[in-house]
Amino acid sequence: MTGWDAAGGPRATAGEPVEEGCGPNCEQALGRLFAYVDRELTADDAAQVRAHVEDCRPCLDEMAVETMLKELVKRCCQEQAPADLRLKIHARLTEVRITRTV
DSSP letters along 12-74, please? Predict the structure, then answer.
């Protein structure tokens, strides 16, 4: 499925060509992009993705979007829930556990 980038142009989701002319190498690189950004690839696989995006502007742009998205989520999820909310959730989870074990 193709999405839209900040400039209003088409942006592919992982595993899809970014633009016409992208071929199997782009599909392979984009298919492993999330794992690359999360540093979950082997050294060899990471080197292959890195080599591809260094030579492919559309894939490099897609990697930049995924990296920015990851950083945004990280920044937005740093706040802790208020103590009273955490206590209510903990109490509810305890209640559910007790109910299911009885």
Answer: EPTTS-SSTT--HHHHHHHHTHHHHHTT-S-HHHHHHHHHHHHH-HHHHHHHHHHHHHHHHHH
Question: Cα(72)–Cα(16) distance, rounded to whole angstroms?
Answer: 23
Contact 18, 11 (CB under 8 A): yes
CB 66 within 8 A of CB 37: yes
Q: Give pTM, 2 decimals.
A: 0.54
Strand partners, 11: 3
**Cβ proximity of 32 and 5 under 8 Å:** no
Q: Give tens-digit pLDDT for 22-78.
A: 667 888 888 899 899 999 999 999 999 999 999 999 999 999 999 999 999 888 888
Domain extent listing, the chain: 2-101
